[in-house]
Design brief:
The chain is α/β, with parallel strands linked by helices. 47% of the residues lie in helices and 15% in strands. The structure holds FE2/S2 (inorganic) cluster.
């Protein structure tokens, strides 16, 4: 039987982490191929429904990563993201989603090696947790939210 390979979705900001991930590639640093990157202008745009949607569509783990504090190109988007992350954790606990499935980090455009390390660590941790199988629960929640506005 083959080993479980987790599907990881990374929500990253365009200006720092996306450029850092690009540097990882151009520096030829090897890292797990399990990650699919979704680029946003800023981590301040990332909300809880996007995380749920990713889990509902089959992700086993999520990485959220943007500019370091005081480096956000929109001044404070990353601080909003950090505050939201505190709320996300509570909501995940409430919904029974293991919070270890979501990693929050800061990666600059110059930190290609750090990006590789975060991806590899997340893949290893989620591999240990096993596949996320509560899609139905998340899908039902999303349908309720959409129906009730
Ligand atoms: Fe990178 Fe805001 S522009 S976190």
């Amino acid at each position: 039987m083959s080993e479980f390979e987790p599907k990881i979705v990374a929500f990253v900001c365009n200006w720092c982490t996306y450029a850092g991930a690009d540097l990882t590639g151009t520096s030829r640093i090897k890292y797990a191929t399990n990650v699919k990157i979704v680029r946003f202008p800023c981590t301040g745009r990332i909300d809880f429904m996007l995380l749920l949607k990713a889990f509902g569509e089959g992700a086993d783990g999520i990485i959220i990563s943007g500019c370091h504090p005081n480096d956000c190109h929109y001044t404070s988007g990353n601080f909003h993201a950090r505050r939201r992350w505190v709320m996300f954790r509570g909501l995940m606990n409430f919904m029974g989603i293991d919070t270890r499935r979501v990693q929050f980090s800061w990666v600059s455009a110059a930190e290609g090696a750090k990006w590789a390390e975060i991806v590899n660590t997340t893949v290893d941790e989620v591999r240990e947790l096993g596949p996320y199988t509560d899609y139905k629960k998340v899908a039902d929640y999303l349908e309720t939210e959409v129906t009730n506005g």
